[in-house]
Structure formats: C-alpha cells, structure tokens
C-alpha cells in the first residue's frame, strides 16, 4: 500500500472536480445546457470514482483521517444533488473507521468543523446541503446502534454551526449593523 500515491490520487481528483471551469451552476442557462448535452457533468463521474476508491481502501482508510476530511467536504459541497448523495456517506464511513479504532471520532469532528467554517465563508454550502447531510448521516448511523447517539449529537452540532454560518454569510451584506452583530455573537 503506497499511502502517498493514494493521497495524490484523492487530492488530484478533488482538485479536478472543484476547478472553476467545471462549476456548471455558474454558467448561463444556454451554456449549461450545451456543456451538459455534449459532455455531461464530469464532476459526478469523478465523484463516483472517488467514492468507489474510498471504499476499496479497506483497513487503510484510517490513514486518510483527518487529512482527507477537507477535500471530501469540498467535494460534497458542490451543488449537484446526485454527487452529494453519493459522497456524503463517506463521512459516516470515516466516523465509523475512527470510532472502531479509538472509540470516538474527535479527529474527524474537529477537522470537519474547522473546514466547514472555511468552506462556507468561501461561499459554499446551502440549506439543501444541510438537510442532506443530516438525513444521510442519520440514515447511515441507524444501522449501527452503538454509535447512533454519538452521530446524532455530531449531526446536531454541525447542523447548528452550518445554520449560523449561513446566516452570518447572508447578513454580511446587510445594511443593519445590529443584524450583523447579532449574527456574529450567535456564531461565536
């Protein structure tokens, strides 16, 4: 097992699907349709490949936690529903791997909170993502009663943080200093 090779693979694949020229939602409707008809959404194809490769790592997955949390988060925040549905379960697998190794998933939790703040500040994330994140992780955890309560509390924490970050991002352009200050206090 060559850790550096796999690490390079995942980082390169995530860099590919997150490049600006593939963010179809930023294009005009006509350009979006033209690219979709000619090439399809390459992000989805590569995202599915990342997912498949992740699950083939077996016991080596633990080597990528917490290092791959940020890149996987960046990929799941792409506003493409099928890509999100296919890749958000990787987070549960990461949590499960760390839990089976250490009895908790604090490294994963700390990393996702840190990276989520950075990504939402950069303009990524939305209400739909928050709902999908919650439902997918809780559905995955349902099959593991021993970890369900920990996952539920983690999801609640991340959902609350994401709500506050999205509110903060929304009011940054607000004229009212009181609204901005109130939102900042909530976030802190």
Automatic annotation (TrEMBL):
GO BP annotations, alphabetical order: cell migration; myoblast fusion; small GTPase-mediated signal transduction
GO MF, any single term: guanyl-nucleotide exchange factor activity
One GO cellular component term noted in the UniProt record for this chain: plasma membrane
Residues in Dedicator of cytokinesis TPR repeats region domain copies: 1-136
Pfam families: TPR_DOCK
Name of the protein: DOCK2 protein
Lineage: Eukaryota, Metazoa, Chordata, Craniata, Vertebrata
């Amino acid at each position: 097992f060559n850790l550096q090779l796999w690490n390079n693979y995942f980082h390169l694949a995530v860099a590919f699907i997150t490049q600006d020229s593939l963010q179809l939602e930023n294009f005009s409707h006509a350009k979006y349709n033209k690219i979709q008809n000619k090439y399809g959404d390459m992000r989805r194809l590569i995202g599915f490949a990342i997912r498949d490769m992740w699950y083939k790592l077996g016991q080596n997955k633990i080597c990528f936690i917490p290092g791959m949390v940020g890149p996987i988060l960046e990929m799941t925040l792409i506003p493409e529903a099928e890509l999100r549905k296919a890749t958000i379960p990787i987070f549960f697998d990461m949590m499960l791997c760390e839990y089976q190794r250490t009895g908790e998933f604090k490294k994963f939790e700390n990393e996702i909170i840190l990276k989520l703040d950075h990504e939402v500040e950069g303009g990524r994330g939305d209400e739909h993502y928050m709902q999908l994140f919650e439902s997918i992780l809780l559905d995955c955890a349902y099959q593991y009663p021993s970890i369900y309560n920990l996952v539920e509390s983690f999801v609640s924490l991340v959902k609350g943080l994401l709500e506050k970050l999205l509110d903060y991002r929304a009011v940054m352009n607000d004229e009212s200093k009181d609204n901005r200050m109130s939102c900042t206090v909530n976030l802190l």
